[in-house]
């Protein structure tokens, strides 16, 4: 509980923004259960559910990681206020437009107003990317003295974010060229892998700090887990570039599955070690 309280105290805005996304996602689930997924002519509850949940989790992740960075008040405001503002705009557009029955990005059934909203959401996405790129700059500017394992993991996670950016840009271009029902490979899994690398890689560094391992030992875990996740994303990106759907059986998919297995092995090994240490020594999170 002390960890949660500390995060909330330092990053209330991001925490509330993240919780809002999760609550919005759950509300959309209720409508989905009562009325089904489709909202004529173009809206879908599942799009609002997954979008709000993903942004909510992403916001909470930044709230957890940001205190590990040594930044000035000005630098902090640029990232935090930038993300909070753009995330709220994205929540509103994604939820309201789907609830009204229109595709929030590439509507073919809406009015000029709805198309302008789609353009505005695109501009908002650019500002989200700009805020995250600035966050990356801050991450790579850090020294390696304090919280070294977490900061190393965050660098790998920032590299994974670029896979998320590329897949997002790909989907935007795909939507413009082919429309919402285009027959090109679906990039949502790749998009998920890229952006959620922020959680899946950073957690390894955080667990290293929790276990209080020497940095030389901790960085081995971080390097292996970070490289495995990047190989997973790059393999799926190569799969898409080659024109295959995500789960078409190819050498790229085999490589991705092996990389995913390595990452899971890392997490399982760390988890078992923590469980063992807790039973033997009564480890406390501080």
Which key phrases capture this entry?
single chain, 2 strands, 2 domains, 1% strand, globular, mainly alpha, 286 residues
Provide an overview of this structure.
The protein is an all-alpha fold and 286 residues long. The protein has two domains: 1-142, no CATH class; 150-286. The chain is 78% helix and 1% strand. It has helices at residues 2-10, 12-35, 45-65, 73-100, 112-140, 148-178, 188-195, 197-200, 202-211, 215-241, 251-281, and strands at residues 38-39, 43-44. It has a two-stranded antiparallel ribbon. A hairpin with a 3-residue loop joins strand 1 and strand 2 (43-44). Helix 5 (112-140) runs antiparallel to helix 6, helix 6 (148-178) packs antiparallel against helix 7 and helix 10 packs antiparallel against helix 11 (251-281). The N and C termini lie close together (10 Å).
Question: In a few lines, what is going on in this structure?
Answer:
With 286 residues, this protein is an all-alpha fold. It contains 11 helices and 2 strands; from the N terminus they run H-H-E-E-H-H-H-H-H-H-H-H-H. A two-stranded antiparallel ribbon has the order 1-2.
Largest sheet: 2 strands, antiparallel
Tell the overall outline. Answer: globular
How far do the termini sit from each other?
Answer: 10 Å
Encode the helix/strand succession as letters: HHEEHHHHHHHHH
Strand proportion: under 5%
User: What structural class results from the helix and strand content?
Assistant: mainly alpha
- Residue runs with pLDDT of under 50 for 5 or more positions: none
- Helix fraction? over 70%
| Count of β-strands | 2
